[in-house]
Specification:
The structure is a single chain. The protein is of the alpha/beta class and 135 residues long. It has one domain: DsrEFH-like (Hypothetical Protein Ychn, Chain: A). The chain is built from three helices and seven strands, in the order βαββαβββαβ. The chain has helices at residues 20-33, 83-88, 119-127; strands at residues 6-11, 37-42, 79-82, 100-103, 109-112, 114-117, 131-134. It has a five-stranded parallel sheet. A two-stranded antiparallel sheet has the order 4-5. It starts with 5 loop residues before the first strand and ends with a strand.
Length: 135
């Protein structure tokens, strides 16, 4: 049995307008650097954090969304997205960035990191974590 604790980072806020999304991303990267078992969950307005085509020129904020595409390099391979949150915002999985990782157990095949889940699956996911941090 591994001593590695499972960490779930729950992202509920829109990507800009507050510090929550950027702070979450920074904490996730730190956790991954220390080889934690890091997983992310995007729900509520947090689904906008990984939406395609973010343009922050009009709000004079740095667009940090491209950083999500590098998470696979940090062995972050599970990014859960709430189906209900997508539905409520008129989004589909096709509206999200193509977030992938290379599966070393499958001859380095590129695979999607995004896993769409419903509310019951989210509850079960949270139950199996050692630590749940909400941003």
């Amino acid at each position: 049995m591994s001593d590695t604790k499972k960490f779930l980072y729950v992202n509920r806020k829109a990507p800009y307008g507050t510090i929550y999304a950027l702070e979450s991303l920074e904490v996730v990267l730190i956790g991954a650097a220390f080889e934690q078992d890091v997983q992310l969950l995007f729900m509520d307005d947090g689904v906008f954090q990984i939406a395609k085509g973010q343009d922050t020129k009009g709000i004079e904020n740095k667009n940090f969304s491209p950083t999500y595409t590098a998470l696979g390099d940090y062995e972050i391979t599970k990014m859960y997205v709430s189906q209900e949150s997508l539905d409520e915002r008129g989004l589909t999985i096709d509206d999200l960035m193509p977030l992938t990782y290379e599966d070393e157990d499958d001859d380095w095949a590129e695979k999607s990191s995004i896993i769409v889940v419903n509310n019951a699956e989210i509850a079960a996911l949270m139950e199996e974590q050692d630590v749940v941090l909400s941003f």
